[in-house]
# Entry
Amino acid sequence: MIQLPAHDYLDRHQIPYERHSFPPTTAKGAANVAQALGYKERQMIKTLIFESKPGERVLVMLGGDQSAISGHLKKAIGSRDIRLAAPAVVKETTGYVIGSIPPFGWQPVGFRTFLEMSLLEEAVLGVGTGQWGEEILLTPENLIKACRPILVNLTERGQPVWPGTGAEK
# Structure
């Protein structure tokens, strides 16, 4: 069984998880991983790197079938000038290529990570390991322990970006 840095990170922090493999010939994308492993697309997490004008890079986690509302994303990040990072910037930032970026283990201190709060309703979530064909499945609670994300609403119009505030902050 292959041991990757993402596994080492979870083991070191004693965070429970399951390993799952799928054929490396599987086409890229959360929908294809979900189908290969027998889960809903929502349960397979997209890890997206965004850049903002001040030069900050952030990680945003969404379900495979979700898209962030631009205004919500801008409010969460705190900048009107945001863009999806180019593949070379993603590699430079994370050490991984787009397609299987683990949401933990590589971030420097102060790096902000955001998690779409509706994903807490799922029983299990799948995240990349850094190697296509390998997936880590863990509970939302254990994902939170692993990456300490900022929980935000990025997908529901008419709902506040910041949960529990009743406002969009």
